Input
Amino acid sequence: MGEFWPVSDVLAHLAGTWRTERSVHDLASGDTGTFTGTTVFSPLDGGGLLHRESGTFAWRGVARPAERTLRFLPAATPGAADVRFADGRPFHDVDLRTGRHTADHPCAADLYRGEYTVSDADRWRTVWRVAGPAKDLLLRTDYTRVG
Output
């Protein structure tokens, strides 16, 4: 089947609960951190999914509760999604029909470049490289389906 696992409908594929493990590496300072928790993709009224991530973020020896919310909305391309921040601002698109997708998000003078890869029905990953005058980060997140 190849290196990547094609997904014909990203919203249907993501629905449910995922164990989430993220490593964060500040390439400028050498600092590293981790996030461990759960991501739940639940149905939104009117279509799409609400992405709720919650867990613990450990950075520089201090562990704190952390959470974020995104909205994965149906995109113009069937089976793809338009990812938005909780307040509705655009984040990026995602289309996993080949099992792999690259997305960009400019944030002020910094650029977030993300790669989604799907290994199989129960595992996928994102790798975000954040580069610019304010940030120099590498974030790798592994998702494993729960249940």
